Amino acid sequence: MPGGGALYATEDPGWGRLESSGAVAELPTPAVADLRASRDIALALSPDGLSVEFSANGTLFKFDSSQRILAPITALDAGYATAATAAPGLTVQNWRDTDAPTVNGIPLKLDPEEYSRSLAVLPGNQEFLLGTDTHLRLFTASGQLLGAIPVDEAAWAVTVTQDGKTALAALLDGTLCWYGIAADGALTLRAKLFAAADHQRWVLFTPNGFFDESDLGGQNLVGFHVNLGPNQQPEWVSFGEGFRLFYNPAVVTAALLGNTAAENAAEAAIGDLHDRLIHEPTVSVQSACVAPAGEPTDENACRSLTVSTASDVALPDDATTLTISVKTTNRGLGVGPEDIFENGRNVAREPAPTLVAGAATQTLKIPLDPGPDQIIVRQYDATAAIYAESPPLSITRTDVDSAAPATTGNLYVLAIGIDHFSAPDPSLTLHYAVSDATSFASLVDQAAAPIYPHTYVTLLTETQATKSGILAALKTIAQKAQPQDIFLFYIASHGGIDSNDNQFLLIPQDIHDLTSWSTIEAGALTESTLISALAAIRARDTLLFIDTCYAGAVSAASLANVGQESGRYIISASSSAQEALDSYDGRDGVLIYALREAFSGDAPHDSHNIIGALSLGEYLSERVTELARQRNHDQTAEFTAAQSQLNSFPVAAITQGNGL
C-alpha cells in the first residue's frame, strides 16, 4: 500500500490491514455469518420446519419465518430437533473433517477429495444425512446411498425434523438451507436463508428466486447471475430489480412446507425467467450539468460536469439543481416509467420515454439536497414489473461543510380518515377510521412537540378526503417541505388490489362506482399516483402509516411495492375483514392503540426518550398482530424500510404522564 503496510484476505472471508511495521491495523470482518459453530453448539429445527435456531459469530439466534423475525436468544427451545449423531444399531465414524467416514464399519463412498463435515441420524435410526464439502448425502445403515444433492459450500452442520421429512443445513457461505426428504430418499432444495453478518438484514428465497425479506431490507443481498452467452460478460440482477415479480412471502412459506403448487403457478405467470432478465432495458446517465442558485436554468447557463461509470462528481458550493441526460435502450421488453432516486428516495416518476430506433434520451432536472447526493435512475420495462438501474452518480460538495445537515427541520403531518363513502353500499361504512385519524394527528402533534421547531398538521376526514382533496393536500406539503423536514402520512380507509394489474388502491371518500375494477381504479388513488405525489415531497425522511381493511385481497405485503418504488418507510396494518378498523378498546383501532402504547414508552427509545422511525416500525409490526389476536381479529402489520442506507430519524418523544 502507499506509505507501507498491506491488505490481506482470509478464508472466512474478510479483509484485514497490516501496518508497515507488520502490526495488525484492522482485523478481518466477515461479510457473511459464520455458521461453523452450529455444528457443535446449536442447529435446531422446529417440528413444522418453519423456525430454526443456530449459532453464528458467537451468538445464538432464532429465525421464525412465520413471524418474519431474526433475533438473538439465550437458550435453545427444547421442542426443536437437534442432530443425533449416534443411534442403536447405527454407528457412523470418522465423519468429522475426513474423506473416509464409515457406518457400522462399512466405508461410505464419496467423490475424490470430498470431505465429510456433518451428520444427522433420521428418526427410526435406519438412515442418516452426511453433509460434505460438496453434497448432502442420504445413506442407509448398510451404507447404501439413497439420495444426494449438491451444496454451494461445505455443509458444516445439519439437522432433521422429528418426522424425518425436512432437513436443514448450515453452509460455509453463511446460508441456512431447507431440504425436503422424500420417501424414496430424494432430496429437494426448498429455500435458503441468507443473513448479513450484522444479522439485521436477511432474505429468505426459493431456488426460483421468490423471496421474503426483513423489515430492514435484504432484496439486494441476493440476485441472479445471468449468463448471456459465450465470450460475453454475465450480468447481475438483484432480487430488488424484479421486486414485483419475486417478492412473495406466501410462496416462500409454502415452499418451506414442501408445497410447490403456489411457486409453480407464480413461475408460470412469469414465463421464461432467463429470457426476461436478459431483455430488461438498460439505462445510464450520459451527461450532467449544474445550475447554481440565482442563475437562469437555460442550457447555456448549465455548467457541464464530467460523468463516467460510478462517477464521483464535486459540485460548486451554490449548486441547487442538477440536469442529467439519461439514455434508455429497449432490449425486447419495451420501456415503462422512469424513477429518479436521490439519496435512497424517489424524487421523480417520469412517463415512459419515446423510443426512436429502440432507444431514447431524456433530459431531467433534479433539485439537489444539501450535502452529498447519490443519484440513481431506474428504468422499468413496459409491464413495470422489472427494472434496471443506472450506475450511481455520487455527488459531493466543494464547500467546507459537505456533510448532510442533522435533522433540525419541521414536521409535516397529513392524517386522513373516512367512515362514510359516496358509493351506495352500506357495507363500506367504517366506524373508527375518522376517530383513528383524529387520534393520530393529536398523538403525533403532542409527541413531536419537544423535538421539532414547528409541527404542521393537516387532518382530512369524510368529505374533505376526496381523491382531489388528498392530492391537493399532498401538493401543498410538497410546496413547503424541504429536505431537512420530516413527513408523516396516515390514512384509515379501504384498500384493494386491482385484479387487472395487481396494483394497490386506496379508496377516497368520493368513490361512487364499484361495478368493476376499472371503475374503482378510475376513482381510487392508485399506488402509481401515490408514488408520484410522494416523489414531489422533498422531505428526506418520510414514514407512511397505511391502515386499510375489508377489500379481501389486501395484505400487509401488498403494500411492499409502494415502499420499494417510493423509497419511503411504510407501516402497513391490513386485514381482509372490515372489523380490522373496529375499536380495540372502545376508543382506538388496533394500529392507533399500539401507537398510543409506543408513544407512552413501550417502544424502544434512546437515552433522551426519543423514539426513532426504525424502532417504531419494528415495534408496531409485532404489536399490532399481538393486539389483533387478543380480539380474535385477523390483522397483520408489516414495516418496510426499502432504502439501502437506513436512517432512523426521530418521530416522537415519550409522552408518559400527559394523558395520551
Can you tell me about this structure?
It contains eleven helices and 43 strands. The chain has 660 residues and is of the alpha+beta class. α2 packs across α3, α5 runs parallel beside α10 and α8 packs parallel to α9.
Instruction: From the alpha carbons, calculate the radius of gyration and give it in angstroms.
Output: 27 Å
Coarse morphology: globular
The overall average pLDDT, rounded, is 87
* Distinct helical segment count: 11
User: Roughly what fraction of the amino acids lie in strands?
Assistant: 35-45%
Q: Notable features of this structure?
A:
alpha+beta, 6-stranded antiparallel β-sheet, 8-stranded mixed β-sheet
Write the layout of secondary structure elements.
Elements (H helix, E strand, L loop, with lengths): L5 E5 L3 E5 L5 E3 L16 E3 L5 E6 L2 E6 L4 E4 L8 E2 L9 E2 L8 E2 L2 E2 L8 E6 L5 E6 L2 E6 L4 E6 L4 E6 L5 E6 L3 E7 L5 E9 L6 E4 L5 E3 L9 E4 L8 E4 L4 H4 L2 H8 L4 H10 L2 H6 L3 E11 L10 E3 L6 E4 L3 E11 L8 E5 L2 E6 L8 E9 L5 E8 L6 E3 L3 E5 L13 E7 L15 H16 L6 E7 L5 H14 L5 E12 L6 E3 L10 H7 L1 E2 H9 L5 E9 L10 H7 L2 E7 L14 H13 L7 E3 H18 L4 E6 L9 E4 L7
Parallel strand pairs: 26-33, 34-35, 34-36, 36-39, 39-40
Antiparallel strand pairs: 1-2, 2-3, 4-5, 4-8, 5-6, 6-7, 9-10, 10-11, 12-13, 13-14, 14-15, 16-17, 17-18, 18-19, 19-20, 20-21, 22-23, 24-25, 24-27, 27-30, 28-29, 28-31, 31-32, 31-33, 36-37, 37-38, 40-42, 41-43
Helix pairs in contact: 2-3, 5-10, 8-9, 10-11
